[in-house]
Amino acid sequence: MRKMIAAMKISIDAKTEGPQGYADWVDAWSDDYGLTPQIDACVLGGRMYPGYEQYWTAIQDAPNEPNPMGVGLPTEAEVAWARFAAKTPHYVLSRSMSSAKWPETSFLRGIDEVAALKQQSGKDIYLMGGAGITQACLAAGLVDEFRFIVYPLIAGEGSALFTAPERHGLELRNVDKLSDDRVRLIYEIS
After folding, report:
1. With the CA atoms of 36, 39, 104 and 8 taken in that order, what torsion angle do they form, in degrees rounded to the nearest 10?
2. pLDDT grade, residue 32 (50/70/90)?
3. Which contacts of 34-40 are long-range, i.e. CB under 8 A and separated by 24 or more positions?
4. Distance (Å, rounded) from C-alpha 7 to C-alpha 134?
5. Cα distances (angstroms) measured from residue 132 to each of 58, 62, 85, 127, 129
6. What is the pLDDT, as a whole number, of residue 30?
7. What is the mean pLDDT of residues 55-84?
8. Domain spans, the chain
9. What are phi and psi of 21, to 5 degrees?
């Protein structure tokens, strides 16, 4: 069975976004979780998908120009991800969305369809988020691993990643200190 790996950038108090609805502490989305070689599918929620598609389409269409949704020119890593994302199937969990600009995008209508995707043959699946779909997949027992880039700040108000009443044990697999006092953590669900 394929593994589902949830990976995201969070504050030290496990917020995925601030009160304005986005992670305003993230300057660039080019940090690598080390996932690209081991995945062949991406899953994300319907609230996250429109902005995600817009951001990465801008980089795909004009890799040498400033991204209107970003800060300055796209980094080399952002251009590499945009190219990878363009040819990698994306699955959007949404009961209402039915169209996307990307040709490799499909829609899943319920968590049972996410579970069915995990049962298919293939490489691992990158669960991109947001917080709601990650919480739902964790509660359904579908998440096998977490990869975080933790920013050294307490975000305060915003969307918390972990709000479920269930307890989940984690086993630390790797820690890397990054620039600007950030930390990359890999945990396996135990």
Report:
1. -70
2. confident
3. 34/147, 35/5, 35/7, 35/124, 35/126, 35/147, 36/80, 36/81, 36/84, 38/123, 38/124, 39/5, 39/88, 39/123, 39/124, 39/125, 39/126, 40/88, 40/89, 40/122, 40/123, 40/124, 40/125
4. 9
5. 26, 31, 22, 11, 7
6. 72
7. 89
8. 4-189
9. 95, 15
* Token pair 């990359």: residue: 184
- Give the amino acid at 138: L
**Superfamily (CATH H level) for 4-189:** Dihydrofolate Reductase, subunit A (3.40.430.10)
Quick one: what percent of the chain has pLDDT higher than 90? 72
The token duo for 116 is: 């069915």
Contact yes or no for 133/47 (Cβ under 8 A): no
Question: What φ, ψ does residue 43 adopt, rounded to 5°?
Answer: -120, 135
CA separation for the pair 88, 70 (Å, rounded)? 22
pTM of the model: 0.93
Burial of 174 (0-12, 13-18, 19+ CB in 10 A): exposed
β-bridge pairing 4-11 and 145-151: parallel
